[in-house]
Amino acid sequence: MQQSPSTKEKVTPTGAWTMDQAVDGLAFLASALKEQLEVTPLPVRTELDLSEVTELDACGCQLLAVFLENLKGNGILAVPHGLAPALFDTTRLLGFAGLLGAQDGAKDN
């Protein structure tokens, strides 16, 4: 799992988000959340760009969902988008399609 740096307006996870990469994913999201919360003033909106995610399982979906909930709990609107059409069925079957913005990937199927 390679990660792109995040900015105050955008967080871009990359690579596989699966149980095998959970420790790295958690570290990346914890760092990204810390960066978001250290910005003064807090960003009103943060983009979660999922276009570089190549693999996703239930564990990866849960990590991303917790990240989104933490942003929301701190008053930051998280806007996930860009999930690849190939990952749409996975997120839909796992119940995360709406939360992770998978509906914008479904149009390309």
Automatic annotation (TrEMBL):
Ranges where the STAS domain occurs? 48-109
Xref: InterPro entries: STAS_dom (IPR002645), STAS_dom_sf (IPR036513)
The molecule here is called STAS domain-containing protein
